[in-house]
Amino acid sequence: MDNVIILAGGQGKRMKADMPKPMFKVLGETMLEWVIGACEKSGLSNICVVKGYKGEMIDEYLGGRYETVLQAERLGTAHAVMQAIPFMEKNSDGNTLVLCGDAPFIDSQTINNSLAMHKENGNSVTVITSEVENPFGYGRIIRSENGITSIVEEKDATDEQKKIREINSGAYWFKTSDLLEALSLVTTNNSQGEYYLTDTIYILLGKGKKADAFISENPDVVLGANDRKGLLMLNKTARENIIGKHLENGVEFTCTDGITIGRDVEIGEGTQILSGTVLTGKTVIGKNCVIGPDCIIENSTVGDNTKLNYVQCYDSQIDDSVKIGPFVQIRPGSHIMTGAKIGDFVEIKNSVIGEGTAVAHLTYVGDSDVGAYVNFGCGVVTVNYDGEKKSRCTIEDNSFIGCNTNLVAPVTVGKGAYTAAGSTITRDVPPDALAIERAKLEMREGYAIKKLKNRKKK
Ligand code: UD1
Ligand code: CA
User: Fold this and answer.
1) Which of 77, 105, 161, 174 to mutate to test the pocket of ligand 1 (most atoms within 8 A of CB)?
2) 180-232, pLDDT tens digit by residue?
3) Rounded Cα gap, residues 152 and 135, in angstroms
4) What is the mean predicted confidence (pLDDT) over 435-442?
5) Which residues are catalytic?
6) Ligand 2: centre distance to CA 222 (Å)
7) Atom of ligand 1 at shortest distance to CA of 10?
8) For a designed S-S bond to 351, which of 84, 140, 368, 373 qualifies (C-beta 3.0 to 4.6 A apart)?
9) Which ligand gives the minimal distance to the CA of 167?
10) Which pTM does this prediction carry?
């Protein structure tokens, strides 16, 4: 079985925050998660994360999903990999992928294609490289006519070597047994006095093994961030790449101002995304929708032909041809069915809104099951919390909830029933009935005139 070792020991001092560098987020997801995601997409699940600075934060974040080992002292990239020797020894028959936890744009295609080359050529090590405009700071790939011979770090490079533009991305495939052997021979004999993982290249070549470089087609595999500005650039790159992918898929953007779309979001053809819209998590948007301006949609599914305008929606499902907004919040556990219409200043929580139902204005629907073609007047409130427990309301098909009705849960409004405006409904309403639960009108003629006289006397 193939292993993955993710180096996540970096502190990121220049970020000026007390946390491991791979825990910084790009488009709302930690860099570590980006790297793990690429591995999972490649079908690699035998992962060990090497933690260092504030390693407990990484453990807490992973919550036992993957193994971790601690590098107590930061003595170089080979030293970091050495901490995972017991992990590799459990599975030493296959290959091991080494990745940097702070280079989020490694992708599954690069991982798979480099592994294919690694296996086909019978390599001991295959370095994933990239040709860049500005190679400063990276390890340079030294080649002879027979292929790669070594990697030289910036600080150890001659002026001639510094001109080389093919650089080490910091990602490698190793034959696991060869890596284990090479690690025992790495020394600290270099300008930084560190155990360099890159030294394994010439060590393995010296043993008559094969080493090769896989030049990545994705120029972003090397990108990382050293400071906040760098992190902003990573976000920018990710945002542009993702929007580019959606443009290719037939999604329409008239501008990209403030638009952020998470890595895993899917959007159907012909859908328009308007400014200020943030789509995150496992969100799926259908075809020919208009989303925005200024929507936040998280972990939600939206059908086709739906229009969301200034909507925030979390962990919910919205079906086809629904119209919502402006200024609406759909809270977790909601399901808005086909053709429903939800207007301004409405909050829906943990409720089903049936087909063709209209909740047009200033209404709170919480913990309720609402049928089809129900009409909510303005200012309806489901009173779902008595200070101790939450209860549900059931509002059946074709019923009509008058303006300013309070529905005190648990309560059922039967099919086709009406509630009178301003009622506080505390008992079930049978189908087709009209429920009026409010004080009777009392008229005091001339009341104001008497008051006025009294005031004048004073
Ligand atoms: C390393 C490579 C360099 C490559 C570059 C790509 C070596 C010697 N050099 O350089 O050829 O171009 O990455 O970014 O490997 N880490 C630990 N523990 C350590 C040292 C590093 O966990 O003791 C982790 C870092 O957190 C980071 C990764 O390893 O995720 C790379 O370390 P970094 O210090 O960035 O390596 P460079 O010297 O930049
Ligand atoms: Ca680096």
Assistant:
1) 77
2) 999 999 999 999 999 999 999 999 999 999 999 999 999 899 999 889 999 99
3) 12
4) 95
5) 361
6) 9
7) 26
8) 368
9) 1
10) 0.86
